[in-house]
Design brief:
CATH architecture of the largest domain: 3-Layer(aba) Sandwich
Order of helices and strands: HHHHEHEEEEEHHHHHHH
Strand content: 5-15%
Structural class: alpha/beta
CATH class of the largest domain: Alpha Beta
Distance between the termini: 54 Å
Number of strands: 6
Radius of gyration: 21 Å
């Protein structure tokens, strides 16, 4: 009798699991259509914790982390741990330190904190140089770049640190390059967070093409000139502004601000 029950479970179990997964996907699709956000974001029965010294480093160095509730700090720390186990750090003429890895990971986790699927496969390594470096991709000196072919995000540490330490100039190299990663991911993936990102980005891109709005954006002088190089740089720059001067952004361009907020599912 017990053997028959076990056999039945082995036969029916996978079907039940597949059925539950399909049902969840259908329900979540409807939820996204109505509310424009995933059905849930965080589910970590056994969250991975940071060492006390690393938590203290985050507390001292990362304002976004300080503002989180205790519950969300646990989620944030778990995601940092997962990020560090997923992506490889490579130092080029510079020794990689724990502080470097934590600051890079925290920047990425901050940007993706409103997304359920945050560990994307569009890159697998972070390469760090001490300062500006010569890039073989276009034979020029760079502060940072995302190379989808090599699956690499590259930073000048000097410039990454400047962007992190100065939170009032709307220039943040880490946010900028990771924004390019998310854009590329949204083009290639259909997970709920990527789909929302893609739809909202398209709306932003269409407004970017609107001549009247484009003229308004330039006249306000809020975004630096580099934002108008193309729609991809525009996206990266507005995400820098979203995190560094959100109140000013919301006041000057409320509709665009709301699009960005929805795009990355921030409250």
């Amino acid at each position: 009798m017990i053997q028959q029950i076990i056999l039945l479970l082995l036969l029916v179990g996978p079907i039940l699991i597949l059925g539950a997964m399909l049902a969840f996907k259908i329900v979540e699709s409807g939820y996204i259509l109505i509310f424009n956000k995933p059905l849930y974001l965080y589910f970590y029965p056994f969250p991975k914790k940071l060492q006390p010294k690393h938590k203290l480093m985050l507390q001292n160095e990362f304002a976004f982390y300080r503002r989180l509730s205790d519950k969300k700090k646990v989620y944030f720390e778990h995601r940092i741990n997962c990020f560090l186990k997923t992506y490889k750090f490579i130092g080029n003429d510079i020794a990689i330190t724990q502080e470097m890895m934590l600051l890079v990971a925290a920047t990425y986790v901050m940007l993706t904190f409103g997304m359920r699927h945050y560990l994307v496969q569009r890159f697998n390594k972070i390469v760090i140089y001490p300062a500006k470096y010569f890039s073989a991709s276009n034979q020029e000196y760079h502060k940072g770049e995302y190379n989808p072919r090599l699956k690499a995000v590259v930073f000048s540490w000097e410039d990454f640190l400047l962007g992190h330490q100065n939170s009032s100039d709307n220039v943040n190299l880490g946010l900028h390059e990771f924004a390019h990663v998310l854009h590329f991911h949204a083009l290639k993936s259909n997970d709920p967070s990527a789909a929302i990102f893609y739809d909202e980005f398209n709306a932003i891109a269409n407004s970017y093409k609107d001549e009247a709005l484009f003229a308004t954006l330039i006249s306000k002088g809020y975004f630096r000139e580099y934002a108008y190089e193309n729609q991809y740089e525009f996206l990266a720059v507005i995400l820098e502004h979203f995190f560094e001067s959100p109140e000013t952004f919301k006041k000057q361009l409320p509709e665009l601000y709301d699009r960005v907020r929805k795009m990355i599912n921030f409250k």
